[in-house]
């Protein structure tokens, strides 16, 4: 963590590059952001199977970040950059319309009603996503907590920059192509909860 993370981490004290593809050692054609990558299963799988895509992974928890740093180092992944603090900082730092895709998968649901104001999905943060995403790109959200799924649907459908992409009843019940699963999803399945997979298009 002391030796490797500084080289992988975004330096938000510097001006962002005009083109986020320049953040990566690898030659990449697009840039994807994952907010709160948890155990890193999804982030690392996508980085391995999509070497032409640059991935920015954000995770504030030290244990989870340490696992990601170890895997990126051991596998010499050249298309991953990391950030270990608040995702708001990154969303405010990146240039306007610079991201090709953004994920938020199984975030902390803050299930008690009095804590709902702590949920990351809110009007202000959707403004941030909307600023950072390119028109026509996707924002993807997954959760097994019905109240958070409903919350996200309502907030995204009320936001002028996003359209829900579902066309059939099964669309939001089916993971995206190449989905590797996550440990949080596995825990939900063990406990009898079902994941929902929402895709929103940036207008």
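Sequence proposed for the structure above (203 residues):
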């Amino acid at each position: 963590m002391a030796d490797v993370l500084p080289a992988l981490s975004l330096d938000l004290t510097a001006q962002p590059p005009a083109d986020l593809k320049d953040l990566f050692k690898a030659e990449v054609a697009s840039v994807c952001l994952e907010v709160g990558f948890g155990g890193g299963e999804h982030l690392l799988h996508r980085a391995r199977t999509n070497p032409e895509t640059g991935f920015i992974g954000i995770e504030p928890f030290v244990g989870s970040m340490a696992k990601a740093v170890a895997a990126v180092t051991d596998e010499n992944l050249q298309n991953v950059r990391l950030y270990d603090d608040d995702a708001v900082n990154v969303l405010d730092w990146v240039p306007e319309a610079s991201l090709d895709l953004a994920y938020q998968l199984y975030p902390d649901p803050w299930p008690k009603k009095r804590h709902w104001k702590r949920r990351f999905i809110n009007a202000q943060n959707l403004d941030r996503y909307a600023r950072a995403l390119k028109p026509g790109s996707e924002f993807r959200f997954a959760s097994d907590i019905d109240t958070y799924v409903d919350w996200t649907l309502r907030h995204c459908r009320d936001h002028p920059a996003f359209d829900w992409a579902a066309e059939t009843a099964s669309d939001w019940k089916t993971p995206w192509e190449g989905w590797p699963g996550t440990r949080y999803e596995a825990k939900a399945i063990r406990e009898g909860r079902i994941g929902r997979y929402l895709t929103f298009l940036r207008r």
